[in-house]
């Protein structure tokens, strides 16, 4: 016996299946939310998990996504600062920490005529091993004099 749905609706193509995928986004800044909206818009996940350390921002972004998801086919959007909610995720997208500035000082002995062994904050390159390079800057004579004065003061 045919179901009521089959009696009332004649399908022209096969019904799209909902993917059984959980996707987690770590970081709810501009890039993280852009990723979330793209994932929701393409219906790539049946559950979207958001993780961030800023609870108020996390809560607000989750509510925004839930309100907007009324127009989408996403059954579940969850958010928490605890990383345990990433369990069973098929994909984890890490967008956190892109704009962080690390407070690292570099030894400037021998740079721009500095003779003392002092550490100053200068533009530098960091990687997994730590400080690898200090970026050379073109300084005016006045700026070189100020740098030497700062080094001698320290």
Q: Quick summary of this structure?
A:
The chain is of the alpha/beta class and 154 residues long. The protein contains four helices and eight strands. It starts with a helix and ends with a helix.
How would you describe this protein?
The chain folds into two domains: 19-94, Rossmann fold, CATH 3.40.50; 106-153, no CATH class. The chain starts with a helix and ends with a helix. Helix 3 links the parallel strand 2 and strand 3. 16% of the residues are buried. The strands form three sheets. A four-stranded parallel sheet has the order 3-2-1-4, covered by helices on one side. By secondary structure, it is of the alpha/beta class. It has four helices and eight strands; from the N terminus they run H-E-H-E-H-E-E-E-E-E-E-H.
Distance between the termini: 90 Å
Number of helices: 4
Share in helix: 25-40%
- The CATH homologous superfamily of the largest domain is named NAD(P)-binding Rossmann-like Domain
CATH topology of the largest domain, what is it called?
A: Rossmann fold
The CATH architecture of the largest domain: 3-Layer(aba) Sandwich
> What count of structural domains?
2
Largest sheet: 4 strands, parallel
Structural Rg? 26 Å
Which H/E pattern describes the elements?
HEHEHEEEEEEH
Shape: rod-shaped
Keywords:
154 residues; alpha/beta; Rossmann fold; 4-stranded parallel sheet; two-stranded antiparallel sheet
Write the layout of secondary structure elements.
Blueprint: H1 4-8, E1 22-26, H2 30-41, E2 47-51, H3 55-68, E3 76-80, E4 91-94, E5 106-107, E6 119-120, E7 124-127, E8 130-134, H4 141-153
Parallel strand pairs: 1-2, 1-4, 2-3
Antiparallel strand pairs: 5-6, 7-8
């Amino acid at each position: 016996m045919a179901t009521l749905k089959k009696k009332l609706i004649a399908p022209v193509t096969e019904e799209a299946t909902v993917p059984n995928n959980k996707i987690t986004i770590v970081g709810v800044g501009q890039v993280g939310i852009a990723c979330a909206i793209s994932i929701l818009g393409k219906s790539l996940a049946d559950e979207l998990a958001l993780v961030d350390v800023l609870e108020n921002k996390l809560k607000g972004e989750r509510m925004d996504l839930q309100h907007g998801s009324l127009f989408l086919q996403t059954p579940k959007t969850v958010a928490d600062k605890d990383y345990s909610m990433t369990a069973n995720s098929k994909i984890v997208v890490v967008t956190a920490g892109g704009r962080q500035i690390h407070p690292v000082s570099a030894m400037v002995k021998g740079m721009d005529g500095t003779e003392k062994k002092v550490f100053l904050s200068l533009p530098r390159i960091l990687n997994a091993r730590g400080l690898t390079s200090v970026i050379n800057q073109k300084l005016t004579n006045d700026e070189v004099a100020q740098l030497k004065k700062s080094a001698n003061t320290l």
